[in-house]
């Protein structure tokens, strides 16, 4: 089975311009993400999908692969769909599973790729998977950059939000969970996704997976055994750098 990891990254983040190239432990953050993802043995190839020449040049300078995409994409999943089509033409290969790993997840452990992909290998009915992390503090629960998720009893997502969900009143009995942006798609479903009309709640929440839910399909949530914090602001970068200094990550 051919499995590709695509890492979408762009310099124009509204919350943290230039984020992928921000220095983390002496090198650009995108370098940490690329190197950690590429260590996973299930992957046939790993590439960065970007519309910025600066990012592409850096990735190639460390021996990585970069695919140039258009600058018009609002959603990382749409950027990855374009990159996939370019990659397949270049390689003459049809990839079976596409693992999207956001470029702001520098604490990604290589095993997290396997955690996310494994359910798809055993169940052909699963079209898309997200890793599910545990929210560890009230501050994280309130943070709009942390995408909260609630699930049904079968482990499928019910809703994603930047607001605190579920209700604050019952957090001692209902676990608080977050989306960890390691997201495998079946190839054909990723291409189907990009042909779907964007949806109202997707736009309101600015969460790719809401497009899947609003079109009546399932997103399988798989708990990860690894802690991870995304970098959305300079303060996040400083916090993640301290964590990565104190323990081996990946």
Question: Would you write up a description of this structure?
Answer:
The structure is a single chain. With 250 residues, this protein is an alpha/beta fold. The protein has one domain (3-227): Spore Coat Polysaccharide Biosynthesis Protein SpsA, Chain A (Alpha-Beta Complex), CATH 3.90.550.10. 35% of the residues lie in helices and 21% in strands. The chain is built from nine helices and twelve strands. The strands form three sheets. A five-stranded mixed sheet has the order 5-4-1-6-11, with helices on both faces. A five-stranded mixed sheet has the order 9-8-10-7-12. Strands 2-3 form a two-stranded antiparallel sheet. α3 crosses α6. The two termini are 24 Å apart. The relative contact order is 0.19. The model has no long low-confidence stretch (mean pLDDT 93).
Write a short abstract of this structure:
With 250 residues, the chain is α/β, with parallel strands linked by helices. It has helices at residues 29-38, 53-61, 76-91, 110-122, 138-142, 187-195, 200-205, 209-214, 234-246, and strands at residues 3-9, 23-24, 27-28, 45-50, 66-68, 97-101, 129-134, 148-151, 157-161, 177-180, 182-186, 220-223. Helices cover 35% and strands 21% of the residues.
């Amino acid at each position: 089975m051919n499995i590709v990891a695509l890492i979408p990254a762009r310099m124009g983040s509204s919350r943290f311009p230039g984020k992928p190239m921000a220095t983390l432990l002496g090198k650009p953050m995108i370098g940490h993400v690329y190197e950690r993802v590429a260590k996973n043995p299930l992957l046939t190839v790993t590439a960065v999908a970007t519309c910025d020449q600066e990012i592409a040049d850096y990735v190639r300078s460390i021996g990585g692969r970069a695919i140039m995409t258009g600058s018009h994409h609002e959603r990382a999943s749409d950027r990855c769909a374009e990159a996939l089509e370019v990659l397949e033409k270049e390689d003459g290969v049809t990839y079976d599973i596409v693992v999207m790993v956001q470029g702001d997840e520098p604490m990604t452990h290589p095993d997290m790729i396997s955690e996310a992909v494994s359910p798809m290998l055993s169940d052909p009915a699963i079209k898309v998977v997200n890793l599910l992390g545990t929210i560890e503090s009230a501050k994280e629960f309130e943070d709009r950059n942390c995408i909260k998720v609630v699930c049904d009893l079968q482990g499928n997502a019910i809703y994603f939000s930047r607001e605190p969900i579920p209700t604050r009143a019952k957090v001692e009995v209902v676990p608080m969970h977050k989306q960890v942006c390691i997201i495998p798609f079946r190839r054909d479903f990723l291409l189907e996704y990009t042909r779907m009309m964007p949806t109202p709640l997707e736009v309101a929440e600015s969460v790719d997976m809401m497009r899947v839910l609003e079109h009546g399909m399932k997103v399988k949530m798989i708990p990860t055994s690894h802690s991870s914090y995304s970098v959305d602001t300079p303060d996040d970068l400083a916090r993640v750098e301290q964590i990565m200094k104190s323990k081996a990550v990946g």
